[in-house]
Write a structure and sequence with these properties.
By secondary structure, the protein is mainly alpha-helical. The protein is about 80% helix and about 0% strand.
Length: about 140
């Protein structure tokens, strides 16, 4: 359970720092338009901190970590979120700095979303195995 709590806490810290990065980078470059940087902190706080706080509550209720699939979910989901957020940060920074983002960045962001989806599927499979069947 501590690992889940620490994960939520780390995402909270990174989320707040990414908001600071967004504010300072756009201020330094007198940027007033839209960029991916504007939603990086929201993604980190919602898909990172809040999500893992919910997983923590589910762990308390259903002992998710007793399933072998939980470890797979945990690392795959985190890898997907890290890749997605990293590509959003790169793309957003390039937009603020006036550079064009290439197709590779878009492709890696898409891969991050696919990996996130696999992680979510693993979470639901884990939940299905840990929640008792009706009538049992």
């Amino acid at each position: 359970m501590r690992k889940i709590l620490h994960t939520a806490h780390i995402y909270m810290i990174i989320g707040v720092v990414s908001g600071l990065y967004y504010r300072e980078l756009t201020k330094l470059n007198d940027f007033t338009g839209d960029s991916q940087l504007g939603v990086v902190h929201t993604h980190l706080l919602a898909l990172g901190m809040l999500f893992f706080l919910i997983v923590l509550a589910l762990e308390k209720l259903f002992t998710l970590t007793a399933s072998k699939l939980f470890g797979w979910f945990f690392w795959i989901y985190n890898a997907g979120l890290a890749l997605t957020v990293a590509m959003m940060t790169v793309r957003g920074s390039m937009t603020v700095l006036g550079a064009e983002a290439g197709a590779a960045i878009t492709g890696l962001a898409g891969l991050g979303h696919i990996i996130l989806t696999v992680g979510l599927i693993l979470l639901f499979v884990t939940l299905g195995k840990r929640i008792p069947a009706k009538g049992a």
